[in-house]
Amino acid sequence: MNCTALSLTQLSGRLAEKALSSVEATEACLRRVEQVDPKVKSFIRVDRDGALRAAQASDARRAAGKTVGVLDGVPVALKDMLLTEGLETTAGSKILRGFIPPYDATVVRLLREAGAPILGKLNQDEFAMGSSTESSAFGPTHNPWDLSRTPGGSSGGSAAAVAAQLCFGALGTDTGGSIRQPAAMTNTVGVKPTYGRVSRYGVIAYASSFDQVGPITRTVADAAAMLQVLARHDARDATSHRVDAPDYSQGLEGGVRGLRIGVPKEYFGDGLDSEVGEAVQRAAKVFEKLGATLTDISLPHTRYALATYYVLAPAEASSNLARYDGIRYGHRAQGIKSLKDLYATTRSEGFGPEVKRRIMLGTYALSAGYYDAYYRKAQQVRTLVQRDFQSAFQNVDVVLSPTSPVPAFRLGEKTQSPLAMYLMDVLTLPCNLAGLPGVSVPCGFTRGGLPMGLQLLGRPFDEAGLLQAARAFEREHDFSSRWPPLTRDARADC
Ligand code: GLN
Predict the structure, then answer these.
(1) Secondary structure element (H or E) that encloses residue 310, with its range
(2) Considering the entire predicted model, what is its pTM?
(3) Any idea where the domains of the chain sit in the sequence?
(4) Is residue 104 within 8 Å of 234, Cβ to Cβ?
(5) Which CATH architecture describes the domain 3-257+471-488?
(6) What is the per-residue DSSP string for 172-240?
(7) Which residues are identified as catalytic?
(8) Which atom of ligand 1 is the closest one to the Cα of 309?
(9) What is the pLDDT of residues 255-273, one digit of tens each?
(10) Residues enclosing ligand 1, CB less than 6 A?
(11) How many CB atoms lie within 10 A of CB 477?
């Protein structure tokens, strides 16, 4: 039997029945990484020993009747934005090469405490800046559904590893769409929690007022199980909320009868692939059939969201990335003559072109002469985008749209045009500007066999409502039972 094709919750059940051990499941994942990942290139670091040690400890707990929850013994993997004690963490950048964190991010600690063996670190765009995983210093990740295409980004390694059955769930980060967009391109489920729902402590900062950690999984129930472990207050993150998380799996099968769904006209405009648009419209009809009501709505400031994001996110990034000075972390330039030379040479050598572009954009937007024209103005527009959602949520419970405007595109197709790349998050980043929760759930395949996803956005802290709606849709189709062709010939018996 190929146990790596089980969902996270199915594996958890098998572990509970003692039909399978955590060591067996972990070894099966590690074998598949060896077989499949040379093609997909989702892992940039495998922690075989650490994962097997955690799996043995989980099996011992189970034998002693002392398991610690649904994730106990379930192998998972992490985007390289998350600090892992004793295990190199680079954010996909040369500048952090050799950086071994002295502590775990809170989310990593929570996963370890929940008993999940951590298989290793997953590829991403450098510092999470990108939409295709191509700006990584480690080279691109390939989409398991078509190896000539990108898995999306920036959490492309996380999405590709879950889709290729290399792990049972993964964590990504989402600043402008980086969990949801790759999920849509790989037939996986991605959850971007409400800003403040999940701790950012120990998460390498890109744009601190946007960044959130969340799960990428094969099914909605799997995402609920992972989010359950992550969603809690953390005194080490000043923006972490004290709102208690509900039981996300409890209402999951509750359906959508009476749910008021808003369909924003601005999300179905120029640049939307016709097959994606049709799939999402079909999905809307499915929700209606299941008892939800559909309302056409308008989020009028959507057209300014992209420009606003690309002022604010680079501004925050330029400040956050000032700490990479060649002294405290990772890469340090050699043959240096002065302190200034050390800073300049380390940063010139260590950062890739997209990161440099963001630092320059952000520094410009924050500079004394331009602050009012760009940064302050963008903050004001951010408020308008937030208000659009606030007024929409007076009449609807959930907003439905496509996740990505297009299915997975070819590697190299957009690397020469930053704007074309930025447009890949045009439908996901308004949610980050407003700090709202968002879910991407599979909604079918193009005629060419590429996955597509739909996005559900909700009120602050209504992750439970979004998961329930996503599950109602998933149950109708079960796209998650379809696998990329390359998983068929891999053997990972256990
Ligand atoms: N593509 C967007 C950017 O480059 C979003 C990335 C993200 O969510 N981390 O900023």
Answers:
(1) helix 302-320
(2) 0.98
(3) 3-257+471-488
(4) no
(5) Alpha-Beta Complex (3.90)
(6) EEESSSTTHHHHHHHT-EEEEPPTTTS--TTBPPSSTTT-EEEEEESSHHHHHHHHHHH-S--TT-TT-
(7) 79, 154, 178
(8) 10
(9) 999 999 999 999 999 899 9
(10) 128-131, 154, 174-178, 206, 313, 425
(11) 15
